[in-house]
Amino acid sequence: MAAKQLNDRNNSGRKNKKRRTRRRITTSARRRRRELIGTAMNRTKATIDASKRAFRNGAEETGTNGRKVLPAKAMRRPVFRQPKTELEQAIQRYVDLFDFAPIGYVTFDRVGRIEEINFAAIRLLRRSRRQLIGTTFAICVAKEDTQLFLDHLRACRSSDGPIMTELRLKRRDGENIPVQLSSTATSALMKDGAHLYQTAIFDLTERKRAEQALRDSQQRLQATYERAPIGISEASPEGKYVGVNEEFCRILGYTKDEILRCRIKDLTHKEDYPREITLYRQLVAGEIPFYRIEKRYVRKNGTIIWAEILRSIVRDSDGAPLYTIGALRDITEEEKAEAALQKAKELLEHRVRERTHQLLVANRELKGEIERRKGLEGEILAISDREQQRLGQELHDGLCQHLTAVAFMARSVALRLKNHRVIDAADIEKIADLVNEAATDTRNISQALHRADVDSAGLVDALQDLVDREIWRVPCRLEVKPSFHIEDDPAAAQLYRIAREAVINANKHAQAREIVVKLERSPQGMVLRVTDDGVGFSDEPKLKHGLGAHIMNYRAQLAGGRLEIGSSRQGGTCVSCYLPHKKGVQSPNDENAGPGLPAKIAKTLTALI
Question: pTM score > 0.90 for this model?
Answer without folding.
Answer: no
